[in-house]
């Protein structure tokens, strides 16, 4: 399956969602996802769909790979061990978790925490793309190689992607290590 960057999936919307309407727009996306059965992850032991969390008007968005066991149980991204590290990263930036927006490439836990398959990521990407277009962050941080691969549509080493600015959905995008790796 050919990788396609989020920028090549769809043009940026001409009319941007106003700040006052972003929370409602996110709820509409979540409702459209519903009790999703669009990809095999729906039948792979998923408990909760992990939509995303944080400020609908955040200037900074983090994108991880996919929910783990704690996230699958709670429905909230990055609440387990990796989440504690992400919280520390956010605090070290002088921000509160409530000020940023956090989501994942796939919204359902891959069994055994395996890497999401390209077909699963591609099925789910339409929703993350729309979340990004609603929130309109200025900066996106891809957490780990999987998030970077699917957002940028390129399969390259993390070390070659790190330390450079990329672009994604009108935002600057930086790639860094996944907190679980750190
Ligand atoms: N790892 C991720 O990539 N996302 C989560 O939400 C939790 C762990």
Could you provide a short overview of the structure?
This protein has 182 residues and is of the alpha/beta class. It has seven helices and six strands. Strands 1-3-2-4-6-5 form a six-stranded mixed beta sheet.
| Alpha-carbon distance between the two ends | 30 Å
Radius of gyration: 15 Å
Strand content: 5-15%
Number of strands: 6
Hetero groups in this structure are: uracil
Overall body shape: globular
Stretches where pLDDT is under 50 for at least 5 consecutive residues are none
Provide the helix percentage: 25-40%
Q: How are the strands of the biggest sheet laid out side by side?
A: 1-3-2-4-6-5
Main sheet properties: 6 strands, mixed
The DSSP helix count reads 7
Give a structural overview.
The mean pLDDT is 97. Helix content is 35%, strand content 14%. The protein is globular. The two termini are 30 Å apart. The protein contains 7 helices and 6 strands; from the N terminus they run H-H-E-E-H-H-E-H-E-H-H-E-E. It has a 6-stranded mixed β-sheet with strand order 1-3-2-4-6-5. A hairpin with a 2-residue loop joins strand 5 (166-168) and strand 6. Bound molecules: uracil. The site of uracil (URA) has 12 residues, from loops. Uracil binds at residues 64-68, 71, 77-78, 80, 82, 104, 180.
Secondary structure: elements and pairs:
Layout: H1 6-9, H2 22-33, E1 53-54, E2 60-64, H3 69-74, H4 81-92, E3 101-104, H5 118-135, E4 139-143, H6 145-152, H7 158-161, E5 166-168, E6 171-176
Parallel strand pairs: 2-3, 2-4, 4-6
Antiparallel strand pairs: 1-3, 5-6
